[in-house]
Amino acid sequence: MTNDTTTTWMIPPQADGWRLDKALELLLPGVGLRGRRRLVESGLATVNGRLLPAGYRVRAGQTVAIVPQHRERRFGPADVPVVLMAGDYGLLNKPSGLHSAALAQGGGESVEALLPDIFSGRPTFLLSRLDSLTTGLLPAAFLAEAAAAYRDMEEAGEVDKTYLAVGHGEPAATYFRCDGELDAADRKKTRVLDRATIDSLRMTEVEALETRGGVTLFRCTIKKGARHQIRTHLAWAGHPLVGDPLYGFGEGERLYLHCAGIDCPAFAAVCDAPWSLGEAVEIVSL
């Protein structure tokens, strides 16, 4: 049942004992697992009027309510500046705290929802995603054909994405490669398996730029990338990122991870980080 403010739905017998985030797929078939979890974690889904975790086991007959988001907007088009226009492509600078993709039924503000205002109603396709806490370059295409061409470039290994990150500790070598195979299937956290990947598109090349106060500024280069790839790989290598609430210690109010450059045959763009190594040093010394 749907009214002007809330959508309600009764758990059917077939979903008895399912996790809440899985059961929501029956109600929201177009929303992926990550989106459904974001909906629950944002407090927009209740079971019998109670806020429950995504892993809660629902029972047949319980009532799920989806409440539309009614929050004051924190972000507008001016908060997502255009860094570069290059033919059929545009590069945006995403701030921290803003999701990349929109989620049906609410779940947080997103760059995707702002695209019509940023590009004056021009049809736009996001080409990648950054975590809500990650800042930096977000590429977009203005034609479906251009989006497909970018995907082909990624698959061919012709896209280089450069990130700046601050991690704990000092590495033994200036240059190293994180090639542990990633498992991101049906998990809130990506994990590194006990074997090396043969997929060069999922490796992370790392250069230590400077160590100070027990933390190191890294330059990380990836190709296509995977969910949480740099965060997971650096934590696996013994250098969890400063401010990472999932793979690190969650200190401070920001994640020190920034997409600083994207280089491919169609365009090349760079974008300065909104933070410094000195700021990270201050955070970990508190």
Automatic annotation (TrEMBL):
Record-linked CDD domains: PseudoU_synth_RluA_like, S4
Residues annotated as domain Pseudouridine synthase RsuA/RluA-like: 89-235
Keyword match Phosphoprotein: no
Single GO term (MF): RNA binding
PROSITE patterns noted in UniProt: S4
InterPro entries, per the entry: PsdUridine_synth_cat_dom_sf (IPR020103), PsdUridine_synth_RsuA/RluA (IPR006145), RluA_PseudoU_synthase (IPR050188), S4_RNA-bd_sf (IPR036986)
UniProt-listed Pfam families: PseudoU_synth_2
Keywords assigned: Isomerase, RNA-binding
Family: Belongs to the pseudouridine synthase RluA family.
Protein's name according to its UniProt entry: RNA pseudouridine synthase
Organism per entry: Solidesulfovibrio carbinolicus
